[in-house]
Write a structure and sequence with these properties.
Layout: E1 5-15, E2 21-32, E3 37-41, H1 48-55, E4 63-68, E5 71-72, H2 78-88, E6 89-93, H3 104-114, H4 121-130, H5 146-158, E7 164-168, H6 176-191, E8 196-200, H7 204-207, E9 212-217, E10 220-224
Parallel strand pairs: 3-8, 3-9, 6-7, 7-8
Antiparallel strand pairs: 1-2, 1-4, 4-5, 9-10
Helix pairs in contact: 3-5, 5-6
The structure holds adenosine-5'-triphosphate.
Pfam family, one: ABC_tran
GO molecular function: ATP binding
Keywords: ATP-binding, Nucleotide-binding, Transport
Length: about 230
């Protein structure tokens, strides 16, 4: 099966004190397959967020390439890259990033509307029912639990039917029960809906559910056998 996302030879340095550079990514390769959940763990400062930002086209590497399907995103201009991100990628963050003055429904449809499109009502209804938030559409985000807010963020990411869903510490702000439910949901999105799911997480409950588990140490990415977590 062809990877949805393929990164090869990624290298990235960031500026550090005294004119030095810190190596955040050191020759990193990554292949993400449809229908699989890939989890990236590793200590703080090891380069996980830098890797996610680059494979998601939010930052550019110093060297190496990233392909989304057969498009090399590292070769695209900013406008084309932004369009590709809007249409083919979904994002979920630790802090939910919902707009508190908008209803749940308006939050979910916002990315599609910003892209000049409208949500088909039956698609929206089916999605929110699947995510168990169908009766919350008229509420405001602050009227929901953390777990419910994160499901809204997942619905917002999925409404565009992305090729790949990126999640950066998605259970970081949730209690253990809500975190376990969100891990179940991410697995189901990969296994039942066929999305490619890429998660950066410190959470052992998420790592234990990975089809492919990677550990980042000092800018290098290592494959780990998920059975051994
Ligand atoms: N914008 C930046 N400017 C300078 N240095 C940066 C920048 N972003 C990251 N770094 C440095 O690059 C290295 C990798 O950081 P990164 O945020 O990718 O790690 P991480 O594994 O995601 O950490 P955490 O788990 O704490 O979020 C660290 O040494 C960090 O201090």
């Amino acid at each position: 099966m062809l990877p949805v996302v393929r990164a090869s030879g990624l290298r990235k340095t960031h500026p550090a004190a005294g004119g030095e550079r810190v190596v955040a990514l050191d020759d990193v390769d990554l292949a993400v397959l449809p229908g699989e959940i890939s989890v990236i763990t590793g200590p703080s400062g090891s380069g996980k967020s830098t890797l996610l930002q680059i494979v998601a086209g939010l930052d550019r590497p110093d060297a190496g390439t990233v392909h989304l399907g057969d498009v090399e995103i590292t070769g695209l201009g900013d406008r084309r890259l932004a369009e590709l991100r809007r249409r083919r990628m979904g994002f979920v963050f630790q802090s939910f990033n919902l707009i508190d003055s908008l209803s749940v429904r308006d939050n979910i449809v916002l990315p599609l509307e910003l892209d000049g499109r409208t949500a088909a009502p039956d698609v929206l209804t089916r999605l929110v029912e699947e995510l168990g938030i169908g009766d919350l559409l008229d509420r405001l985000p602050h009227q929901l639990s953390g777990g419910q807010q994160q499901r809204v963020a997942v619905a917002r990411a999925l409404l565009v039917d992305p090729d790949v869903l990126f999640a950066d510490e998605p259970t970081g702000a949730l209690d253990p029960d809500a975190a376990a439910q969100l891990a179940d949901l991410l697995v189901a999105l990969a296994h039942e809906r066929g999305h490619a799911v890429v998660v950066v997480s410190h959470d052992p409950a998420v790592a234990a559910r990975a089809d492919r588990l990677h550990r980042m140490v000092a800018g290098r990415l290592y494959a780990v056998d998920p059975e051994r977590v």
